[in-house]
Amino acid sequence: MADKIRVLIVDDHDRVRGGLVTALRRADPLEVVGATGCADEALQWLHERSPDVILLEVKRVGGALPCPAQALVHQIMPCGALAGCGACAVETRLGWKLACNDGPVFDLIDLLPKG
Ligand code: FES
Closest by alpha carbon to 114, among 97, 91, 98? Predict the structure, then answer.
Protein backbone atom coordinates (compact mmCIF):
# COMPACT_ATOMS: atom_id res chain seq x y z
CA MET A 1 0.00 0.00 0.00
CA ALA A 2 1.29 3.46 -0.93
CA ASP A 3 2.10 5.98 1.78
CA LYS A 4 -0.68 8.39 2.67
CA ILE A 5 -0.47 12.07 1.73
CA ARG A 6 -0.88 13.89 5.02
CA VAL A 7 -3.11 16.97 4.74
CA LEU A 8 -3.58 19.84 7.20
CA ILE A 9 -6.62 22.09 6.61
CA VAL A 10 -6.52 25.70 7.81
CA ASP A 11 -9.71 27.70 7.28
CA ASP A 12 -11.67 29.76 9.78
CA HIS A 13 -15.06 28.84 8.30
CA ASP A 14 -16.44 25.83 10.18
CA ARG A 15 -18.62 24.66 7.30
CA VAL A 16 -15.82 24.91 4.74
CA ARG A 17 -13.42 23.11 7.05
CA GLY A 18 -15.98 20.40 7.82
CA GLY A 19 -16.79 19.91 4.15
CA LEU A 20 -13.13 19.57 3.25
CA VAL A 21 -12.54 17.07 6.03
CA THR A 22 -15.51 14.98 4.89
CA ALA A 23 -14.46 15.08 1.25
CA LEU A 24 -10.80 14.38 1.86
CA ARG A 25 -11.42 11.49 4.27
CA ARG A 26 -13.02 9.67 1.33
CA ALA A 27 -10.10 10.43 -0.98
CA ASP A 28 -7.48 7.74 -0.81
CA PRO A 29 -4.48 8.10 -0.41
CA LEU A 30 -5.11 11.31 1.57
CA GLU A 31 -5.05 11.42 5.35
CA VAL A 32 -6.37 14.50 7.17
CA VAL A 33 -3.95 15.09 10.07
CA GLY A 34 -5.76 18.16 11.34
CA ALA A 35 -8.30 20.85 10.60
CA THR A 36 -8.29 24.18 12.37
CA GLY A 37 -9.34 27.77 12.02
CA CYS A 38 -6.62 29.01 14.36
CA ALA A 39 -3.27 30.17 12.92
CA ASP A 40 -1.36 29.46 16.14
CA GLU A 41 -2.74 25.94 16.30
CA ALA A 42 -1.90 25.44 12.62
CA LEU A 43 1.73 26.44 13.23
CA GLN A 44 1.92 24.08 16.21
CA TRP A 45 0.45 21.20 14.20
CA LEU A 46 2.77 22.01 11.28
CA HIS A 47 5.69 21.07 13.52
CA GLU A 48 3.99 18.25 15.45
CA ARG A 49 2.16 16.47 12.66
CA SER A 50 4.44 17.11 9.65
CA PRO A 51 1.77 17.39 6.95
CA ASP A 52 2.80 16.89 3.31
CA VAL A 53 0.18 19.38 2.10
CA ILE A 54 -1.51 22.35 3.76
CA LEU A 55 -4.84 23.61 2.45
CA LEU A 56 -4.81 27.20 3.59
CA GLU A 57 -7.36 29.96 3.19
CA VAL A 58 -4.98 32.52 1.75
CA LYS A 59 -6.99 35.62 2.69
CA ARG A 60 -6.56 34.80 6.39
CA VAL A 61 -2.76 34.66 6.35
CA GLY A 62 -1.23 37.82 7.73
CA GLY A 63 2.33 38.95 8.21
CA ALA A 64 5.43 37.06 7.18
CA LEU A 65 5.28 33.42 6.20
CA PRO A 66 7.27 31.03 8.40
CA CYS A 67 8.65 29.21 5.37
CA PRO A 68 8.37 29.19 1.57
CA ALA A 69 5.04 27.75 0.61
CA GLN A 70 2.84 27.07 -2.37
CA ALA A 71 -0.91 27.03 -2.61
CA LEU A 72 -3.27 25.01 -4.77
CA VAL A 73 -6.02 27.34 -5.98
CA HIS A 74 -9.43 25.79 -6.56
CA GLN A 75 -11.41 27.74 -9.15
CA ILE A 76 -14.31 26.92 -11.38
CA MET A 77 -13.11 26.09 -14.89
CA PRO A 78 -16.14 26.34 -17.18
CA CYS A 79 -14.18 26.23 -20.44
CA GLY A 80 -12.48 23.02 -19.42
CA ALA A 81 -9.13 24.67 -18.75
CA LEU A 82 -8.71 25.88 -22.34
CA ALA A 83 -7.69 29.34 -21.10
CA GLY A 84 -10.56 30.82 -23.07
CA CYS A 85 -13.15 32.09 -20.61
CA GLY A 86 -11.19 33.83 -17.86
CA ALA A 87 -13.50 32.52 -15.12
CA CYS A 88 -10.58 30.97 -13.27
CA ALA A 89 -8.64 34.25 -13.00
CA VAL A 90 -6.68 34.74 -9.79
CA GLU A 91 -5.30 38.10 -8.66
CA THR A 92 -1.62 37.80 -7.76
CA ARG A 93 1.21 40.19 -6.99
CA LEU A 94 2.33 39.62 -10.59
CA GLY A 95 -1.07 40.58 -12.01
CA TRP A 96 -4.04 38.44 -12.98
CA LYS A 97 -3.24 34.80 -13.70
CA LEU A 98 -5.37 31.93 -14.96
CA ALA A 99 -5.53 29.01 -12.53
CA CYS A 100 -6.03 26.63 -15.46
CA ASN A 101 -3.05 27.89 -17.43
CA ASP A 102 -0.62 29.52 -14.98
CA GLY A 103 -1.46 27.34 -11.97
CA PRO A 104 -3.30 25.89 -10.26
CA VAL A 105 -0.29 25.90 -7.90
CA PHE A 106 1.15 29.33 -7.10
CA ASP A 107 3.81 30.57 -4.72
CA LEU A 108 1.82 31.58 -1.67
CA ILE A 109 3.66 34.87 -1.32
CA ASP A 110 2.37 35.90 -4.78
CA LEU A 111 -1.22 35.37 -3.61
CA LEU A 112 -0.93 37.56 -0.53
CA PRO A 113 -1.89 41.22 -0.69
CA LYS A 114 1.06 43.61 -0.95
CA GLY A 115 1.76 45.46 2.20
S1 FES B 1 -11.05 27.68 -17.13
FE2 FES B 1 -11.51 29.06 -18.66
S3 FES B 1 -9.82 30.39 -18.70
FE4 FES B 1 -9.32 28.98 -17.14
Answer: 91
Q: What is the pTM of this model?
A: 0.54
Q: What is the mean pLDDT of each run of 10 residues along the chain (115 residues)?
A: 80 88 86 89 88 74 60 86 92 93 88 72
Q: State whether the beta carbon of 90 lies less than 6 angstroms from ligand 1.
A: no
Nearest CA residue ID for atom 1, ligand 1: 77
What separation in Å is there between the alpha carbon of 19 and the centre of ligand 1? 25
- Under 8 Å CB-to-CB from 46, ≥6 apart: which residues? 8, 54, 66
* Atom 3 of ligand 1, residue of closest alpha carbon: 83
Q: Which domains does the chain have, with CATH numbers?
A: 1-60 (3.40.50.2300), 69-115 (no CATH)
Phi, psi of 27 (to 5 degrees): -100, 95
Q: Does the beta carbon of 23 sit less than 6 angstroms from any atom of ligand 1?
A: no
